[in-house]
Amino acid sequence: MKYQGGLMRILKLAIILIIAGLFSFGAVCGGKQKPTLTPPKAAQQPQEEVGLEKQPVEKIEPPVVDEVSLALGNIYFDFDKSELEPEAREMLERYADKLRENPQMRIRIEGHCDDRGTEQYNLALGEKRAFEAKKFLMSSGIAGERIDIISYGEEHPADPGQNEGAWAKNRRAEFKILR
Questions:
Q1: Given a cut of 80, is residue 66 above it in pLDDT?
Q2: pTM (2 decimals)?
Q3: Scanning 25, 84, 111, 145, which has its CA 20 to 30 A from the CA of 160?
Q4: Which residues, in sequence order, are CB contacts of 111 under 8 Å at separation 6+?
């Protein structure tokens, strides 16, 4: 029985230590509240505009150019040629007049070819065609800085057909207004 009394004492002591440990643990860990994040009151209220007045915005319009003066057509070339025909020279002279009347106007001349020939050859020929038109305009007194050139070769056909009529439409220089 003596053995039983000692065991009971140890058991009571163990229970007391466990309970005391739980209270200690609860006091250390459970006593703190987790902070909740609340935004500052200033952020919750709408902000006032301070000292800013709304000013009307002035719209800037591009220079007005008479639309009739911008109607530029294409010039056409013979097969495998970049020389300007008399009809093309007459058109280019009219374009030079329009460019002189509108000194703020800039143009881009796009050289084109039909699809016969290699891609590389047609790009070079399209550039020669655009350059010949630019050279003519420059000889008529138009500054070269106002004229850009580019070659599209056979990439942008006016007519995708595979006959002489379609090919003739594709051998051209187009004029685009850049302003």
A1: no
A2: 0.61
A3: 84
A4: 125, 126, 127, 128, 129, 130, 131, 149, 150, 151, 152, 153, 173
